Amino acid sequence: MNNSKPNEQEALPNVFEYLKGTIPDLVSIAKQKRNDLVKLTLSKPTERQLADLQSLGIDIDDKYVHTIDNFSIIHTFKQHGNAKTEASRGQIALADADFNRIPRIIEDYDGIGLDKNDRSQDVIIYSKTFEDGVTYYLEEVRVGRKELSMVTMYKRKLTGEPMPKNCLRF
C-alpha cells in the first residue's frame, strides 16, 4: 500500500535555490545565517581560463559556470573576517566589499594555481593584486554540476612574495 500523498514530491523543499540578484544581495543573505543553500551564478569561464586550466590538467568546457553561495560566504567571513586573527596570519580581514571583487578576480587574475581539497576535488586558486593587498580566491571544480564553486577567499598584505603553495591551509 502506498501511503504517500499525491504531489508529495512537489511539497519537498528544494536542495538549493538560485538567486536572481547581486553579490551584495547574497552577502546579505549569508549574514542572515539562513539554513537553506542559496547560489548565485556569476559567469562562464573565459577563453583564457579554459586555456590556463587546460595547461594545469583541468579539462573543463564552456558549459561550466562560476558560482558562489551563502555557505561559502559564511565560511569565508568566519575564517577570514576577524581583523585580529588575520593580522596574526599576515593577512587582512575581509569586508563585504571584497566579495564584489570576485568577478574581476576570476576574469582578470594575476596568477592561477591548482590544489586538491580533502575530498580530492580540484581547487583552482586565483590571485589578484589590488591597492590594499593580494586577494586569493579559491573555487572547487564540481564535475557533476559543471560548476566552479567558491570555497573561500582571503587577502594578504602586499609583500612581493609568490602565491603560497599551500593556499588551502589559510
Describe the structure.
With 170 residues, this protein is of the alpha+beta class. It has one domain. Helix content is 29%, strand content 31%. The chain has helices spanning 8-11, 23-31, 47-55, 70-80, 83-88, 96-99, 102-107; strands at residues 16-18, 37-43, 65-69, 91-92, 111-116, 122-130, 133-142, 147-156. The model is unreliable at 1-13 and 166-170 (pLDDT under 50).
Task: Output the keywords.
170 residues, alpha+beta, eight-stranded mixed β-sheet, 7 helices, 8 strands, disordered C terminus
Question: Summary?
Answer:
With 170 residues, this protein is of the alpha+beta class. The chain is built from seven helices and eight strands. Strands 1, 2, 3, 4, 5, 6, 7 and 8 form an eight-stranded mixed sheet that branches.
How is this fold's topology laid out?
Layout: H1 8-11, E1 16-18, H2 23-31, E2 37-43, H3 47-55, E3 65-69, H4 70-80, H5 83-88, E4 91-92, H6 96-99, H7 102-107, E5 111-116, E6 122-130, E7 133-142, E8 147-156
Parallel strand pairs: 1-2, 3-8
Antiparallel strand pairs: 2-3, 4-8, 5-6, 6-7, 7-8
